[in-house]
Design goal:
Length: 119
Amino acid sequence: MKRFLLIVVSVFLAGCVDLGTVGLHPAVKTAYFSGEVWQVERCLDTEAYRHNLFMEEDEPYSNGSKRYNLSEQGTLVAWLDIAHFSHHQTSVFAYYGQKEAGIEDKLSAMFDTCKSELE
């Protein structure tokens, strides 16, 4: 009976998570920027808008790193983790669906533009 209850609760909770097109095994793109976290956030938000994406802040991690959901036409297409890396440097990890080539191109363009602007 306990196993059955555990399985039912697990299935119910798994149904509550919206993975969008990211999926359970996302691809990862990493970038490092010469700038403070707030500067990188502002730049990426502007670039997301230029690529018809919407960047929404999620609950931060306990270590102070920030999480963002990246949506396209109401569908979650990527997660962004933005954190202080070292003196005046910020790291960004983007998690997106492996079959989403268009999102990978948009993320690359966003990262390239922000790297250029923050140098």
